Amino acid sequence: MSATEFVVARHVETVWNREGRIQGHMDSPLTLEGIAQAKALANRLRGSQFDLLVSSDLGRASATARYIAAETGLAVVLDARLRERHYGIFQGMTRAEAQAAHPEIYRRYSEEDIAFAIPGGESTQACFERSIGCLEELAVYRPGQRILVVTHGGVVDGLYRHTTGLPHVGSRVFTMVNGSLNEFLFERGTWHLKSWADIAHLAGNPLDDV
Predict the structure, then answer these.
(1) Between the CA of residue 105 and those of 66, 120, 125, 191, what are the distances in Å?
(2) Residue of 11, 25, 86, 102 marked active site
(3) Rounded to an integer, what distance in angstroms lies between the CA atom of residue 149 and that of residue 109?
(4) Residues 23-55: pLDDT tens digits?
(5) CB–CB of 9/180 below 8 Å?
(6) CA 4 from chain center: how many Å?
(7) Measured in whole angstroms, how far is the alpha carbon of residue 121 from the centre of its chain?
(8) If DSSP codes are grouped into helix, strand and coil, which group holds residue 148?
(9) What DSSP character marks residue 157?
(10) Cβ neighbours for 20, distance < 8 A, ≥ 6 positions apart
(11) Could you say which of 5, 13, 84, 122 is catalytic?
(12) Are strands 181-187 and 190-198 parallel, antiparallel or unpaired?
């Protein structure tokens, strides 16, 4: 079976990214910097050949995907399985606010148990399983194709860790900025990393994952 190539973009900057707020399944508008990033990302991808453009259905990802669609002519296919982790009662808060409001739950969260689900939300493991299930389903049904994916930091983080053999919890030692491009291959049931954190199209200092 031919390898399926994935070019995975993290959505561009939002107001809550800038404020350091936990977004999860909630949304905030793109900042002016985010709009500039989306235009630069779309311009970078113009002329590239893709068989499919698929995006998380959350607003910040789908908005990023629409800029890309306008330049590439691709239709945007939305898939809720590519959503960010649901952070339950922490959503809309900064981490300091979440810790102050829910100290015991935040302590459990900080222990980085892959199976711990924040009340009202989901675990790291659940987020990974639904997102990797989506991507591997695409790979199986579209062998040999090149697929552009627009998604979130948590999904990209999980895919990177899975591909490189890193634990799914623990301090992140790799960059993962808004508007970055990351390339993976899926071949014979195995993921391979082609390139990571490509931001050649971006100006300034894009935010690392927050």
Answers:
(1) 37, 12, 17, 34
(2) 11
(3) 28
(4) 999 999 999 999 999 999 999 999 999 999 999
(5) yes
(6) 19
(7) 17
(8) strand
(9) H
(10) 94, 95, 210
(11) 84
(12) antiparallel
Annotated active-site residue 11? The verdict is: yes
Task: Verify whether residue 84 is a known catalytic residue.
Answer: yes
Please state, as a whole number, how many other Cβ atoms lie within 10 Å of the Cβ of residue 106.
20
Could you tell me how far CA 105 lies from the centroid of its own chain? 25
Q: Which tens digit of pLDDT belongs to each residue from 92-116? A: 999 999 999 999 999 999 998 999 9
End-to-end distance of the chain based on CA atoms, in angstroms? 38
User: Under a CB-based contact definition with an 8 Å cutoff, are residues 93 and 21 in contact?
Assistant: yes
For every residue of 68-104, DSSP letters joined together read HHHHH-PPEEE-GGGPPPP-GGGTTSBHHHHHHH-HH
* Sign of the alpha-carbon dihedral angle for 52, 126, 84, 177: negative
Q: How many CA atoms lie within 13 A of 44 on its CB side?
A: 18
Please calculate the CA angle 14-17-72 and round it to the nearest 5 degrees. 40
Length of the chain: 210
